[in-house]
Amino acid sequence: MSPPAQPSMRPTGAGELITDTLDVVHDRFSASEGGELASYIPELATADPGLFGIAVASVTGNVYVSGDADVPFTIQSLSKPFVFALALRDLGLEEVLVRVGAEPSGEGFSSIRLEPGTGRPPNPMVNAGAIVTTSLVDAPDEAARFERIRAELGAFAGRELDVDERVYASEAATGDRNRAIAYLMHGAGSLQADVEGTLGTYFRQCSVLVTARDLAVMAATLANGGVNPVTGVEVVEEHVAERVLAVMATCGMYDYAGEWLLRAGLPAKSGVSGGLVCAGVGQFGLGLFSPPLDARGNSVRSVAAAQEISRRFDLHLMHRPDRDVSALYRSTRVDRLRQLAHRTPGQRRRLRDLGSAISVRAVQGSVEFAAAESILRSVDELPSPLPDGECWLILDLSRASRVISLGAQLLGGLVERLQSQRVHVVVVDPFERGLVTGVEHRTTTFEDAQRWCEDQLLATA
Ligand code: DON
Asked: If you average pLDDT over residues 68-89, what whole number do you get?
């Protein structure tokens, strides 16, 4: 017998629509001429100022690129959020905060200012803070520490990453300002590890080679709650990814951090080789590369292009989420619904008269504070034509994507309260996720819930 014919797959090229959008942004800024190459690390001054690449990696694991997105360059300060993630994994937030703060400095990336009293650097995104976070990565010696960092950066990028030895040697030979900062911190107690060893690891970490495509996947991993969307590997836990993104949002762009958040509204980090990473939380990672920098050390074209993409894709962090979608999408009673097919004429009549005793609330999307609150308020009063006020509530969670812990707590409390007041609560959840505790009855379809409540009502009345 011949196997069944397979349907042929017709390529539609639909993904090109996203690439087209990136091409439009790339074309718009590729001719911009402003900015200077970084020269305090001499090797960086040899970069080609005309290079310009943009890459987007979605949380579904697709990558779209425009321009020079596969040209390697050294990661520099873009390593800082990812090494901060590693320190958070090793030590936890409280221990890390003892040694490095989380306040925007309002100063340049190589500021020497430390917190009076504690000697802590202001945050892990400026050089001082990053040198401390590098020293906090747990390892028996500097070689092992660097290998852990290289492996972590590679896990974020989804491939093994190499080091540019020329850039490393160039920075190691000229990094006196970082040396000064490190010795100052050692004197103040915030850097407790060996100064020269830590600096060697930090300079090597800054010399790891990446592309704009890598950066997009790295940012998408943070945007995806710590799971690399291309490899499927959980690189960091979700709470670590959230904390890294928070510090990127407030401190990632140095003395441009405030205006950046105002204009682009995205957690981001820049680097002196011309790279920029941004995360559209829950949506995608963005990686950009263009070597000429503005006076604050941020890539001129990358900043302009990222702001344009944020505007076009409507990504500003402060946009109200799901603003067009009501969490509570259905609020009704059974006497207003189509009757079930198997009911006798007598039952139908009684359900028309008494069906207002069965209320329905259906929610969609993520049940967070606002959604849980709207459910609570919608059941402030429930109708009942029965003399003792007995009634039923069908809570339909079929379209709820998840119930966060506060939502679950509020809904659990609601169920307990209602049931003590002779309100029978039935939850509909086709996926049997046990999202709300303590309910009298659970069903996987709305029809089953309706039948269960109606049968009880008919038996009672
Ligand atoms: O420590 C340094 O100075 C460099 N390795 C990295 C600085 C950097 O990328 C700042 N970013 N804008």
From this structure: 98
Q: Using alpha carbons, list the distances in angstroms from residue 312 to 25, 65, 220.
A: 9, 16, 18
Domain count, the chain: 2
Q: Answer with the one of 264, 283, 313 that is the final residue of a domain.
A: 313
Gap from CA of 176 to ligand 1 centroid (Å) = 13
From ligand 1's centre to the CA of 76, what distance in Å? 5
Closest to 274 measured CA to CA, from 299, 300, 304: 299
φ and ψ at 278, to 5 degrees? -140, 150
Q: Could you tell me if the CB of 81 is within 6 A of ligand 1?
A: no
Asked whether the beta carbons of 64 and 287 are under 8 A apart, the reply is no
The HSE-up count of residue 248 (CA atoms within 13 Å, CB side) is 33
Query: What would the pLDDT profile of 344-394 be if each residue is shown by its tens digit?
Result: 999 999 999 999 999 999 998 888 777 788 888 888 889 999 998 999 999
How does the average pLDDT of the chain come out, rounded? 93
Pocket test of ligand 1: the residue of 36, 41, 44, 77 to mutate, having most ligand atoms within 8 Å of its CB, is 77
Task: Clarify whether residues 288 and 392 are in a common domain.
Answer: no
Structural domain includes residue 159: yes
Indicate which residue's Cα is closest to atom 2 of ligand 1: 127
Q: Give yes or no: residues 95 and 236 share one domain.
A: yes
Atom of ligand 1 nearest to the CA of 177: 3
Q: Which atom of ligand 1 is nearest to the CA of 40?
A: 3
User: Structure pTM?
Assistant: 0.83
274 occurs within a structural domain:
yes
| Distance from residue 272's CA to the centre of ligand 1 (Å) | 5
**pLDDT(2) > 80:** no
| Site of tokens 């991993």 | 221
| Ligand 1 site, residue 75, Cβ cutoff 6 A | no
Beta bridge partners of 349: none
Task: Compute, in angstroms, the gap from residue 73 CA to the centroid of ligand 1.
Answer: 13
Q: How far is CA 142 from the centre of its chain?
A: 31
